[in-house]
Write a structure and sequence with these properties.
Elements lengths: L3 E2 L5 E2 L1 H24 L5 H21 L3 H23 L1
Antiparallel strand pairs: 1-2
Helix pairs in contact: 1-2, 2-3
């Protein structure tokens, strides 16, 4: 879906890797901004973006057949999203 077919039939996940890299950069920039300025209202949004990053990483690991790592990433993402939406509702 997000990749190109190689000659040996395998698919390169360039699109998903690009999304992962962009989300990682955004999360790091947002975390540094929160750390420097002490504006903790942005922390919820960084948790939501971190959750999206974890979902992307889980999908990539699942495609590479690392199912145990993918399951752990999905479980951590579920907890992260629970905390993010709980803090957003308060």
């Amino acid at each position: 879906m997000f990749g190109w077919k190689l000659k040996n039939g395998r698919e390169r996940n360039l699109g998903m890797k690009l999304v992962r890299s962009i989300l990682a950069v955004i999360v790091i920039i947002l975390a540094v901004y929160i750390f420097v300025t002490d504006v903790f209202e942005m922390l919820t949004y960084s948790l939501i973006l971190l959750g999206l990053l974890l979902i992307t990483m889980g999908v990539l690991e699942f495609r590479v057949k690392k199912k145990a790592t993918a399951v752990v990433l999905f479980l951590v993402d579920g907890f992260d999203m629970y905390v993010a939406f709980f803090s957003l509702s308060n």
